[in-house]
């Protein structure tokens, strides 16, 4: 097979997401499988150029994986005509500037969410990319999770009848950092550094709800900072200025009501770290990262409320596992492959900077709804 290379400047690969999901599990995994088969006797071959602020950290990653290109000079990489795609998984607050430069330099864009810290910036990026004619994509990994792919299959197959409601439960305990190290970066808990669970998770909920059930028409949210003091990577105490929990109600087109709790201050009593229950007139389903279980109308038990008697039924056992019926790849990798095909072949790709701006919009409106204590409409965005 002949190789067709696509050169990707990857900025933020020393971070959690950039290293594990994007470099190792996506780009290097694509190389390990021999590239992306384009179906014409050629394979698309990604060549990463690692970009970051710390030379020694980039060098060490490059050496670990047999790569030989890295740089701390973002401007130089953007003026390098051999680079096709700019990828960004930096801290959120650093993203908008870097993306703007990369678009202006004519690079195709692939980026983590949120694409900017505010809607104006996110929309401006989408418009700029459109005007420059570059291709652009935003990570929407949850749509590619096995559990949600199976849920989507149920939706598309009409399993639910009329969908009534969606209830999402996301979260786990993030250690404060004093007694046990925190398992997430400390900037996530400081709003001045782009942190906060609304800014982080509402972009995900926007595309999940939109992609599976319909556009979000309104939002009502309550954001809270339950843990006001945390300890950072150096063990220094700091004030957690950002929200660590958010309780949101979203009205979707078609009348579906979605309610999603997001929290880094809950202990898990669920099968998975995120779960969505969908109830419809004909059936219900509960989907997590990997599993999806369904209960049809015909198999629905008839519980009778009686607090005087212990429960005699095992309600969880009354659900049926939805089969995989296929193999699921890592969600980040699956989306990278679609994006790189889009770049190479011009195949359709919907998860672009305008879609990314919708996520930023929902986060912004969620925070405003919480601050003002009222439900807000979500206007349709356009270029
Ligand atoms: N798609 C998802 O599921 C998902 C999950 C977690 C995070 N994210 C997003 O990915 C991005 C990175 O998150 P992460 O958890 O990997 O963060 P991280 O702190 O682990 O990594 C941040 C990266 O940005 C770089 N950086 C650039 N400027 C910086 C600065 N001024 N201060 C600190 N670091 C700086 C760091 O060197 C590092 O490479 C965020 O925008 C976040 O919203 C997405």
Architecture overview:
This protein has 383 residues and is an alpha/beta fold. It has two domains: 2-141 and 331-350, NAD(P)-binding Rossmann-like Domain (Rossmann fold); 143-328 and 361-376, Dihydrodipicolinate Reductase, domain 2. The protein is built from nine helices and 18 strands. It has helices spanning 16-32, 55-64, 74-79, 95-104, 119-132, 146-156, 197-212, 331-345, 353-372, and strands at 2-11, 36-37, 42-51, 70-71, 85-88, 108-111, 136-138, 163-171, 216-224, 229-231, 237-239, 245-252, 257-263, 274-280, 283-287, 292-296, 320-321, 376-377. The strands form three sheets. A nine-stranded mixed β-sheet has the order 17-16-15-14-8-13-12-9-18. Strands 1, 2, 3, 4, 5, 6 and 7 form a seven-stranded mixed β-sheet that branches. A two-stranded antiparallel sheet has the order 10-11. α1 (16-32) packs across α8 and α7 (197-212) crosses α9. The longest helix has 20 residues, at 353-372. 43% of the residues are buried. The structure holds nicotinamide-adenine-dinucleotide. Nicotinamide-adenine-dinucleotide (NAD) binds at residues 12, 14-18, 52-53, 89-92, 94, 112, 139, 141, 185, 200. This is Oxidoreductase.
């Amino acid at each position: 097979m002949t190789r067709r290379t696509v050169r990707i400047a990857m900025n933020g690969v020393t971070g959690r997401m950039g290293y594990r999901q994007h470099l190792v599990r996506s780009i290097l995994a694509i190389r390990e499988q021999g590239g992306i088969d384009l179906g014409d006797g050629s394979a698309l071959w990604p060549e990463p150029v690692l970009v970051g602020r710390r030379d020694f950290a980039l060098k060490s990653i490059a050496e670990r994986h047999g790569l030989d290109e890295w740089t701390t000079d973002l401007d130089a990489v953007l003026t390098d005509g051999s680079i096709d795609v700019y990828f960004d998984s930096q801290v959120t607050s650093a993203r908008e500037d870097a993306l703007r430069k990369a678009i202006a330099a004519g690079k195709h864009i692939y980026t983590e969410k949120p694409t900017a810290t505010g809607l104006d910036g996110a929309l401006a990026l989408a418009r700029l990319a459109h005007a420059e004619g570059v291709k652009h994509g935003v990570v929407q990994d949850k749509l590619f999770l096995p559990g949600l792919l199976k849920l989507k299959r149920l939706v598309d197959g009409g399993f639910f009848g009329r969908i009534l409601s969606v209830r999402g439960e996301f979260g786990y305990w993030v250690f404060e950092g004093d007694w046990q190290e925190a398992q997430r970066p400390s900037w996530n808990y400081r709003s001045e550094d782009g942190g906060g669970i609304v800014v982080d998770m509402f972009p995900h909920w926007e595309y999940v709800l939109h992609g599976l059930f319909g556009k979000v028409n309104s939002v009502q949210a309550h954001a809270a900072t339950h843990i006001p003091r945390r300890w950072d990577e150096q063990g220094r105490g700091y004030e957690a200025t950002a929200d660590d929990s958010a309780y949101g109600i979203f009205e979707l087109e078609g009348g579906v009501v979605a309610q999603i709790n997001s929290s880094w201050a809950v202990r898990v009593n669920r099968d998975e770290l995120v779960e969505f229950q969908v109830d419809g007139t004909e059936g219900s389903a509960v989907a997590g990262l990997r599993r999806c279980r369904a209960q049809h109308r015909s198999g629905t038990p008839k519980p009778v409320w009686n607090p005087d008697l212990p429960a005699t039924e095992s309600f969880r056992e009354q659900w049926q596992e939805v089969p995989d019926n296929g193999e699921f790849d890592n969600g980040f990798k699956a989306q990278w492959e679609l994006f790189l095909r889009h770049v190479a072949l011009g195949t359709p790709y919907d998860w672009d900077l305008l879609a990314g701006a919708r996520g930023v919009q929902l986060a912004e409106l969620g925070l405003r709804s919480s601050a003002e204590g009222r439900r807000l409409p979500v206007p349709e965005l356009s270029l």
